[in-house]
Amino acid sequence: MTEPLALGVLVSGSGSNLQAILDAIADQRLHAECKVVISNRPGVQALSRAQLAHVPTQVIDHKGFANREEFDGQLVRSLRAHGVEWVALAGFMRVLTPVFLDAFADHVVNIHPSLLPAFPGVDAQAQAFSYGVQVTGCTVHFVDVGVDSGPIILQKTVPVLAADTKESLGHRILEQEHLAFVQALELIARGQVKRQHGSRRVQVTEPGKG
């Protein structure tokens, strides 16, 4: 078995996806070590979740920096100081600049509550509900300089039911997010996710295959 994935998680809110990651590590369903959880907002629930799991935490408030690049530079320094090699965005509500993305090239992953490229950006669940689609879901993808535009690692579908509200649909999408994020990170930890050079395509080999 390879070394555990040296993971840093960036958060801004309640941290339910962070909790799914921490639980999977504790249950040995995810071969990773969470080196640090960093929030750009003080006092959020995600920090408490990390502290309960005995994971180092740090608050780096974006309001204390003159621009996005300076903020991203501090994020990079902090993550590197904790030995982070892969970065998971678990409800991190900031757009990352090339300062960050170049430092962790092809090593930053995000979870988005739609079947990208449909409904990028904020409030994707409400977008899907309002548009009237019959199927939506969630996407784990590599992060690039666009908004939810990076190469797709995996997706999970969620049917839109006749009785759904925006809230009930969002809840069922979130349940699949928790599964998808852990599954994608485990594939990465096992070396089963490969970017194809010069292409947006991602080669994913399922466990036990390839």
Task: Jot down its keywords.
2 domains, alpha/beta, 6 helices, single chain, Rossmann fold
In terms of topology, how is this protein built?
Layout: E1 5-11, H1 16-26, E2 32-39, H2 45-52, E3 57-59, H3 68-81, E4 86-89, H4 98-103, E5 108-112, H5 124-131, E6 135-142, E7 152-159, H6 166-189, E8 193-195, E9 202-204
Helix pairs in contact: 1-6, 5-6
Task: Explain this structure.
With 210 residues, the chain is of the alpha/beta class. The chain has two domains: 1-105, 3-Layer(aba) Sandwich (Rossmann fold); 112-210, Formyl transferase, N-terminal domain (Rossmann fold, 3-Layer(aba) Sandwich). 34% of the residues lie in helices and 23% in strands. It has helices at residues 16-26, 45-52, 68-81, 98-103, 124-131, 166-189; strands at 5-11, 32-39, 57-59, 86-89, 108-112, 135-142, 152-159, 193-195, 202-204. A seven-stranded mixed beta sheet has the order 3-2-1-4-5-6-7. A two-stranded antiparallel ribbon has the order 8-9. Helix 5 (124-131) crosses helix 6 (166-189). The protein is globular, with a radius of gyration of 17 Å. The two termini are 16 Å apart.
Output the radius of gyration: 17 Å
State which percent range the strand residues make up: 15-25%
> Number of helical segments?
6
Taking the alpha carbons of the first and last residues, their distance comes to 16 Å
Instruction: Give the helices and strands as they follow along the chain.
Output: EHEHEHEHEHEEHEE
Oligomer: single chain
Number of strands: 9
CATH class of the largest domain: Alpha Beta
Tally of individual domains:
2
CATH fold descriptor of the largest domain? Rossmann fold
Helix content: 25-40%
Assigned CATH superfamily of the largest domain:
Formyl transferase, N-terminal domain
Query: What characteristic shape results from the CA principal axes?
Result: globular
- Average per-residue pLDDT, rounded, comes to 93
Strand ordering within the main sheet: 3-2-1-4-5-6-7
Can you tell me the CATH architecture of the largest domain? 3-Layer(aba) Sandwich
Low-pLDDT residue intervals, each spanning 5 or more residues: none
What does the main sheet amount to? 7 strands, mixed
- Structural class computed from helices and strand pairing: alpha/beta
